[in-house]
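Deliverable D2.4 — example input (structure tokens):
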């Protein structure tokens, strides 16, 4: 089990049971006591649990649940692999747009790991390591405890299914911003390009794409061939796609022929 998946699983256990012990994590997850303690320390440092003697407990009713978890997702490992590959695009000082979706949520987790590796970054004018602009409350929540990340949350009406804010308020904000990168989540990817099931989310995503120097669609291999209600646009709108190694050669060839630039993350099913 990958580290990010393990942390998500521990959070699920704590939220379900109220508390866990190091011994229970060792038994349930097959990890060493030292690994269990380190994982609990990480979750405590991020403000997601309260560390106790011999374990950890939930923070209380005010705690936001894990909206997107890849732990029980058929493509969970694929999304984690995609997220790790996405960190190759990051540079200190970048301003990054992030939509909602389970794959983008995994990108947020990967960004947390990346910021730890770049904790020594300093700027003479106090520029944050990264600035993240998002319309997804779970993405903002996952990054909220990183002191070296500036977070801007877009306004709008909350979609209570996807936990994304959409509408004219957010689009108006986006019109005033510019991004070095944007990570765009999608529900499907067909001959019309990437898309979502909600036209308002598609409009927000489309504006984020237009305001980005390098928009990047993040989509697991299961998304290809699926038609969405509302298209974000074709390769003239967003050319870069990060997917996983289970994508078929035929799909890959068609995407390249259409003008997309494809980056493939290797998935190890035995992780």
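Example output (designed residues):
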């Amino acid at each position: 089990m990958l580290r990010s998946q393990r942390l998500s699983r521990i959070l699920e256990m704590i939220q379900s049971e109220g508390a866990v012990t190091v011994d229970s994590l060792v038994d349930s997850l097959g990890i060493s006591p030292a690994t269990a303690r380190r994982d609990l320390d990480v979750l405590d440092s991020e403000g997601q649990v309260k560390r106790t003697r011999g374990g950890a407990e939930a923070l209380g009713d005010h705690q936001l649940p894990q909206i997107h978890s890849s732990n029980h997702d058929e493509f969970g490992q694929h999304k984690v692999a995609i997220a790790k590959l996405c960190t190759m695009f990051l540079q200190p000082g970048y301003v990054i747009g992030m939509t909602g979706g389970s794959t983008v949520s995994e990108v947020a987790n990967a960004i947390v790991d990346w910021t730890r590796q770049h904790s020594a970054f300093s700027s003479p004018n106090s520029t944050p390591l990264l600035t993240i602009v998002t319309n997804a409350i779970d993405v903002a929540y996952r990054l909220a405890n990183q002191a070296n990340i500036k977070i801007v949350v877009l306004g709008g009406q909350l979609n209570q299914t996807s936990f994304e804010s959409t509408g004219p308020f957010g689009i108006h904000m986006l019109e005033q911003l510019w991004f070095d990168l944007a990570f765009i989540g999608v529900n499907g990817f067909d001959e019309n390009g990437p898309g979502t099931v909600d036209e308002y989310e598609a409009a927000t995503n489309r504006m984020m794409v237009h305001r980005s120097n390098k928009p990047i669609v993040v989509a697991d291999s299961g998304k290809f061939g699926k038609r969405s209600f509302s298209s974000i646009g074709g390769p003239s709108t967003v050319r870069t796609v990060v997917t996983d190694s289970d994508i078929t050669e035929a799909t890959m060839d068609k995407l390249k022929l259409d003008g997309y630039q494809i980056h493939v993350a290797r998935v190890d099913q035995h992780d």
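Residues 3 and 118 are 19 Å apart (CA to CA).
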